[in-house]
Design brief:
The chain is α+β, with helices and mostly antiparallel strands. The chain is built from ten helices and 13 strands. A seven-stranded antiparallel β-sheet has the order 2-3-1-4-5-6-7, covered by helices on one side. A six-stranded antiparallel β-sheet has the order 9-10-8-11-12-13, sandwiched between helices. A hairpin with a 2-residue loop joins strand 5 and strand 6.
Length: 363
C-alpha cells in the first residue's frame, strides 16, 4: 500500500491529495492556484486524487500548502505529506479536511499527538489496527531489538487503516513504478531458482532426478536452471515437486542441515484449465505445474497461477502487498476496469515475483 508513497517520482518530495466533492479538473486547477503543479492525477471510487511537489523551488515557496483553499463547503480532503523533511528522514504527515476546516492531523512519527476539530475521528480504526491504545507502543526489552526493523510494517498498517476508513482508492502509481512488464523467460519454460545451493549442486540434483538443465547460471545469490517444457511431457509438476523437496528433510543431510535452502519455481507454460486445476488446494495435472511456487523447509510457502485474476486463488499471502498495490487483486482494480486484458499473460505478476525475490533473468 505504501509503495505509492515512496519512490514513485524519483527526485520529488511529493504530497498526495484525495478530494471528495471536487472533480479531477477542479482539484488540479485549485492546486495550480496554490502554485503546486500536479505531477499526476486521476479519479476512482468517488475520489479525485492528485500528486504534487511539496515545495515550489522555482519561486522559493518553501511553506506548507493551505489546503483549506481547495476544500470549499461540501468538500472533503485527505492529504498525505510523504516526506515533510527528507533530510532528517522524518515520517509522513496526515491531514483530513472537511468544509474548509482541519478535522484531524498527525505525524506518522507521533500518532499519539493528534490535532484538529476531532482528534478522535479515526480512533476506532487506529485502535482496531493496534496503532493506539494499550500495548500499541513497542515494548520489546531485548537489547538486540531495533524498533526500526518493523517501521515499514507499522507505516503500512497505518496507511491501510486510513485508506480503509475513507475508502480511498490506490492511485496507479505503483504500476508506474513497475515499468518493465516483459518477463525475460521464454514461453514454455520451467525455471528452478535455489538460494543456499551452489550451481554444481543444483544441476547435479536435477540431473540425478532425470531432469538435466537446458541452461544454468548463478547470480545475485541465486543458482538457477531452466527446462524446456516440451522436453518433459507430463513431468512439469514433478519438476516443481523436486524444487520443493530439495528444501526439506530428504536433502538436509546432503546440504549440511535443515533450513539451508530456499527455492522459487516459475513456469511460463499455460495455466491448468482442467476442472480439477481451478482451485489452488487441489493438485494440478502433471502437465501444468503452478506458475509460481516458493518453498522452504520442504513445504510450499506460497503458490498460485498468474494472469486474468488467477492470483486471487492462491495459497499464502507473501506477495499480497505487491499484488494489491499493482491493482491485480482486491476490491480496487482500476487497470482491469480500463482494460479487461490487463495482465492477461501474467507478465506483470511474474515481474513482481522476480523483483520481490531479486531473481536474475535466466539466459
Amino acid at each position: 500500500m505504501t509503495s505509492w508513497m515512496h519512490g514513485s517520482f524519483p527526485g520529488h518530495e511529493m504530497n498526495i491529495v484525495f478530494s471528495r466533492g471536487l472533480s479531477p479538473d477542479a482539484l488540479t486547477a485549485g492546486l495550480r492556484g496554490l502554485r503546486r503543479e500536479p505531477l499526476a492525477h486521476g479519479e476512482a471510487n468517488g475520489w479525485a486524487w492528485a500528486v504534487h511537489d511539496m515545495l515550489n523551488d522555482e519561486i522559493d515557496d518553501y511553506e506548507g500548502v493551505d489546503y483549506r483553499q481547495v476544500c470549499p463547503q461540501g468538500t472533503e480532503l485527505v492529504v498525505f505529506v510523504t516526506e515533510p523533511c527528507s533530510a532528517k528522514a522524518h515520517g509522513p504527515d496526515f491531514e483530513h479536511y472537511r468544509d474548509g476546516r482541519l478535522v484531524l492531523g498527525f505525524s506518522f512519527e507521533d500518532i499519539g499527538q493528534r490535532v484538529g476539530e476531532n482528534p478522535d475521528h479515526l480512533s476506532v480504526e487506529l485502535l482496531a489496527a493496534g496503532l493506539i491504545g494499550p500495548g500499541s507502543p513497542c515494548e520489546a526489552a531485548d537489547d538486540d531489538h531495533d524498533c526500526f526493523d518493523h517501521h515499514d510494517d507499522d507505516e503500512d498498517r497505518l496507511v491501510r487503516a486510513i485508506a480503509g476508513a475513507f475508502g480511498l482508492p490506490s492511485p496507479p502509481l505503483a504500476r508506474e513504478v513497475v515499468r518493465e512488464t516483459d518477463v525475460p523467460i521464454a514461453p514454455g519454460t520451467f525455471v528452478t531458482y535455489a538460494k543456499g545451493l551452489d550451481l554444481p549442486t543444483l544441476t547435479a540434483v536435477l540431473t540425478e532426478a532425470g531432469y538435466p538443465a537446458r541452461t544454468r547460471g548463478e547470480s545475485a545469490g541465486w543458482s538457477w536452471a531452466t527446462h524446456d517444457a516440451a522436453d518433459l511431457p507430463g513431468l512439469g509438476t514433478a519438476v516443481a515437486d523436486l524444487a520443493r523437496d530439495i528444501t526439506g528433510f530428504r536433502y538436509e543431510e546432503r546440504f549440511g542441515g535443515p533450513g539451508r535452502v530456499e527455492t522459487v519455481f516459475l513456469a511460463t507454460t499455460p495455466a491448468c484449465e482442467c476442472p480439477h486445476g481451478q482451485n489452488y488446494m487441489i493438485p494440478h495435472c502433471p502437465d501444468h505445474p503452478f506458475q509460481f511456487q516458493h518453498c522452504r523447509g520442504g513445504f510450499e510457502q506460497s503458490y498460485f497461477n498468474v494472469g486474468r485474476r488467477r492470483e486471487s486463488r492462491r495459497s499464502g499471502d507473501l506477495l499480497v502487498r505487491e499484488l494489491l498495490d499493482a491493482g491485480i487483486v482486491g476490491r480496487h482494480t482500476p487497470a482491469y476496469d480500463a482494460d479487461p486484458d490487463f495482465n492477461a499473460d501474467g507478465a506483470v505478476t511474474l515481474r513482481i515475483v522476480m523483483d520481490h525475490f531479486g531473481l536474475p533473468a535466466p539466459s
